[in-house]
């Protein structure tokens, strides 16, 4: 029988340099709906474990081994990431594959309005978030051993194909907006750009910041691959089109200028300059794709909740109600 996390100190002592038990506290983070994440406190300090969820999983989903690989590759770049300390592929230890990384102390915001912060901090956070994204897309994949991190071919074409398959595998009913969106994405695929490392889920709640508003850790690399960098920019701008608050986590209807937060256009223009682009790109397709992918992801969460395998079943069912809303939001942008 696999041991609970609190009892695997002997394993970690044998496999993680400098680790010393016992483990005195295990705290499950509020984030990490897809891959459960735990903060461990041991005699040698704090560590983080991310593991696959329990139950039957979709093929290629929850790839914690890919997360470990990309964290290891980015360690000596300008992209701030935790140190990847150990990957355990022996499922007898915890019941599923997991990896251990260093604990980074930092501020994490779920709400992009950064409520309670000064305009100066908000401006610093958004500027650093933008600079970190440009730094990520400036990394030469071959220089860090990631030249084969994604399959060849058009990124958006293969991603739409992948997420359509994932969506079909967890589909619980026919949703007309999703069918219309899938058809449009298939028909309007943009030409392939230079392959770069794409994070896959670029948003503020996957980043940590220090007290001055500088990004000091990029987290949650499960969806990362080689591909089109505009997918990351589109993903972030998509998030901002959602309602503010704990569920939407967006900036819809928010007076950004009053809060010191850049507009979509200002943020995209700044990114384009930092990324060395000759002009601000058309983001309609990347944003529509981001809505579609998120709809497919939360459909998977809903299916796991219905099957009893979700990390938080109640939250999973609640999230599932947003699938048609995400699809409709994408259609509104492209029509």
Structure description:
With 335 residues, the protein is of the alpha+beta class. The termini are far apart. Helices cover 41% and strands 13% of the residues. It is built from twelve helices and nine strands. The model has no long low-confidence stretch (mean pLDDT 91). It folds into two domains: 5-102, Phosphorylase Kinase, domain 1, CATH 3.30.200; 119-334, Aminoglycoside phosphotransferase (APH), C-terminal lobe (Aminoglycoside 3'-phosphotransferase, Chain: A, domain 2). The chain has helices at residues 9-15, 64-73, 91-94, 119-138, 155-170, 176-187, 230-240, 256-259, 264-274, 284-307, 313-320, 323-334, and strands at 23-28, 37-42, 45-51, 84-88, 98-102, 196-198, 207-209, 215-218, 225-227. It has a five-stranded antiparallel sheet with strand order 1-2-3-5-4. Strands 6-9 form a two-stranded antiparallel sheet. A two-stranded antiparallel ribbon has the order 7-8. InterPro entries: ACAD10-like (IPR052898), ACAD10_11_N (IPR041726), Aminoglycoside_PTrfase (IPR002575), Kinase-like_dom_sf (IPR011009). Keywords: Kinase, Transferase. Residues 27-247 form the Aminoglycoside phosphotransferase domain. One of its GO terms (molecular function) is kinase activity. It holds the Pfam family APH.
Reading off the top of the CATH hierarchy, the class of the largest domain is best stated as Alpha Beta
Mean pLDDT: 91
Please tell me what the overall shape is: globular
- The H-and-E topology, N to C, reads as HEEEHEHEHHHEEEEHHHHHH
What name does CATH use for the topology of the largest domain?
A: Aminoglycoside 3'-phosphotransferase, Chain: A, domain 2
Number of domains: 2
Number of contiguous helices: 12
Structural class: alpha+beta
Radius of gyration: 20 Å
Strand content: 5-15%
Largest sheet: 5 strands, antiparallel
Taking the alpha carbons of the first and last residues, their distance comes to 54 Å
Query: Roughly how much helix do the residues carry, as a percent range?
Result: 40-55%
Spatial strand sequence of the major β-sheet: 1-2-3-5-4
CATH architectural group of the largest domain? Alpha-Beta Complex
- Say which CATH homologous superfamily of the largest domain is assigned: Aminoglycoside phosphotransferase (APH), C-terminal lobe
GO molecular function, one term: kinase activity
Keywords: Kinase, Transferase
InterPro entries: ACAD10-like, ACAD10_11_N, Aminoglycoside_PTrfase, Kinase-like_dom_sf
Pfam family, one: APH
């Amino acid at each position: 029988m696999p041991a609970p996390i609190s009892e695997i100190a002997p394993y970690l002592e044998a496999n993680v340099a400098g680790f010393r038990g016992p483990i005195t506290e295990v705290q499950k983070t509020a984030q990490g709906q897809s891959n459960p994440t735990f903060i461990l406190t041991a005699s040698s300090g704090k560590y983080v474990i991310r593991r696959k969820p329990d139950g039957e999983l979709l093929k290629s989903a929850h790839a914690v081994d890919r997360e470990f690989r990309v964290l290891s590759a980015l360690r000596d770049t300008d992209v701030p990431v935790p140190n990847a300390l150990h990957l355990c592929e022996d499922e007898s230890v915890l019941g599923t594959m997991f990896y251990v990384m260093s604990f980074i102390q930092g501020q994490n915001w779920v709400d992009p309005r950064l409520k309670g912060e000064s305009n100066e901090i908000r401006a610093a956070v958004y500027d650093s978030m933008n600079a970190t994204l440009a730094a990520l897309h400036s990394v030469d994949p071959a220089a860090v051993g990631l030249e084969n991190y994604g399959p060849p071919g058009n990124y958006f074409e293969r991603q739409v194909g992948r997420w359509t398959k994932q969506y079909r595998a967890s589909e619980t009913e026919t949703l007309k907006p999703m069918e219309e969106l899938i058809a449009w994405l298939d028909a309007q695929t943009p030409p392939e750009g230079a392959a770069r490392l794409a994070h896959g889920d670029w948003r503020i709640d996957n980043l940590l910041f220090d007290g001055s508003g500088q990004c000091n850790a990029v987290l949650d690399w499960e969806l990362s691959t080689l591909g089109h960098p505009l997918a990351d920019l589109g993903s972030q701008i998509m998030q901002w089109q959602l309602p503010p608050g704990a569920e939407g986590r967006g900036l819809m209807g928010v007076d950004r200028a009053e809060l010191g937060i850049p507009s979509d256009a200002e943020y995209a223009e700044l990114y384009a300059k930092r990324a060395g682009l000759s002009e601000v790109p058309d983001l309609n397709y990347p944003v529509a794709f981001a809505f579609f992918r998120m709809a497919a992801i939360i459909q998977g969460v809903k299916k796991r909740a219905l099957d009893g395998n979700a990390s938080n079943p109640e939250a999973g069912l609640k999230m599932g109600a947003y699938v048609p809303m995400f699809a409709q939001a994408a259609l509104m942008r492209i029509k």
